[in-house]
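Lecture 7 notes: from sequence to structure.
We start with the chain below.
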Amino acid sequence: MRGDSRSAETNFLMPEVMLLAYRHGFFPMADEYSGRVEWHRPDPRAIIPIHGIRISQSTQKLVRRGAFRISIDTCFRTVMEHCANRPDRWISDELIDAYTLLHEQGWAHSVEAWQDDRLVGGLYGVHIGAAFMGESMFSLVSNASKVAFAHLASILVSNDFRLLDTQYINHHTASLGAVEVPDAVYAAMLADATEAWSAFAPPRGEVFP
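Predicted structure tokens for the same chain:
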């Protein structure tokens, strides 16, 4: 029976199933105790309005100063592994495999922050149409994930994304501009965004490795 259960879990984490779930507002998380992957669709839903993203003045100064070197999609799996390295481990090995496959197919992206040749922060999420579903971020040094998020914001604004989904609200996402919307409102925003298209590319004039 264990083999059958693992096989079923692997099947519903295949790219086509994952993408269908995201298009309908669902996302997977692993139970921190059992490791079993479950689908979530919170109501209300946390989003950050694209033109309501808040970047603190201190973070903007770090961006202008070039405190971190930024790259896109150079080490997606490593970013996920860092994000998973926390006490409440809801990112299981199966999810790392599943999202890495989505990344290899062009449906998931990471933004990385570096000091010299050391990866010190980053984030990742799923990109469908003109929607970006932010999944998780990490920092090994102060402000690294904040600067990575600032660059994500630039990517989304400059490429006319319509939706930045943060799933659940917390103190950190609220400080970045997150608000909660009813499920019906979120569903309409999701449909509108996934039927459009935006490229996940650096803003004009910027070149990331």
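Points to note: The chain has one domain: 44-194. The chain has a mean pLDDT of 93.
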